[in-house]
Amino acid sequence: MHGGLAGMMHGLASQDGVASDPLNRLDERGMDRKSERSGERGATRVRSRVTIRKDDVQVPAPFAYERATSVDHALELLERLGPEARLLAGGHSLLPMMKLRVAAPEHLIDLDPLAVQLGYIREQAGEVRIGAMTRHREILASDLLARRLTMFTDAERLIADPLVRNRGTIGGALCQADPAEDLSSVIAALQGRAVIRSRSGEREVAMREFHVGPYETVVGEAEMLIEVRVPLREGAGSAYEKVKRRAGDWAVAAVGAALWLSGGTIEGAGIGTTAVGGGVTSERAEAALVGERPAEEVFDRAAEIAAEDCDPVADQRGSVDYKRHLTAELTRRALRRAAARALGAEA
User: Fold this and answer.
1) Which residues lie below 8 Å from residue 32, measured CB to CB, with a gap of 6+?
2) How would you classify the pairing of strands 107-110 and 85-88?
3) What burial letters (b/e) apply to 264-289, b meaning 16+ CB within 10 Å?
4) pLDDT per residue over 265-288, tens digit each?
5) Structure pTM?
6) Could you say which of 3.30.870.10, 3.30.390.50, 3.40.630.30, 1.10.10.10 is the CATH number of the domain covering 236-342?
7) CATH fold label, 1-47+63-232
């Protein structure tokens, strides 16, 4: 999960949970430029001037394989093998990149045996804790999340397809740090935190500060993301809205909204955006909601601000104006549903 592109814990990026068409994704992101993006462990090395054609048939460069038996073992391997090691937690993002020779780690550390240790969803100390190796299908099936943090359930229904959801993990998705990845904005809107571990101890980082940029996170070398923690509050409602071109595809735009009501007034708000540039949240839109009563005119103003704060790029999925329009409309819809859930009024 180290920094960025590759992965979840230094390398959990390998399973970002939404790898529908890596060739198209690479084309869109312009990853033919030389770049160092921390990912699993650190940075996934992106080759200089790589030309990718869909008729190319490629296999990964040679690499050594290690199988971690515990978190401590994985951290020991990361320290010993150095910055060219990557954590493998599913492979839906890292392996396609390796086949294209865009990523060429010298060592892969398989985290699949850690699914027992880091695969859980539980309520503890006033918050929900989700282990980094928890798979998308487990998040989707969680009754606890469906009842208390419904935005997770909304988002997981729209992530990729059953094949990806059966293998991909939350840690891999977060550490991949793809701008079109869904769970980062969900957790940021819900004011969640990431727990990062090294051999010297643990630290917590707010999800709003977890991403340094596209394909890059604050997870350092010889560190792993081990858990996500999301606080539980009374009077809460949340929702996630997404537009994509086809089933299993990445988002054209998506917005998650969380509201916390007290006495019919919005006491707190979270708005997370996906695939539209800018920050992972719109703090100005959140501030515009606090102290107001849920109403269409309040939601309209917050939606306008969220659209202003995003910074989309025109691509094959749509123009800048179209993506700003989607951001405003999806913010409005997510806020309506979040308010209805907080008030217990959703059918």
Assistant:
1) 26, 49, 50, 51, 52
2) parallel
3) eebbbbbbbbbbbebebbbeebbebb
4) 999 999 999 999 989 999 999 999
5) 0.85
6) 3.30.390.50
7) 3.30.465
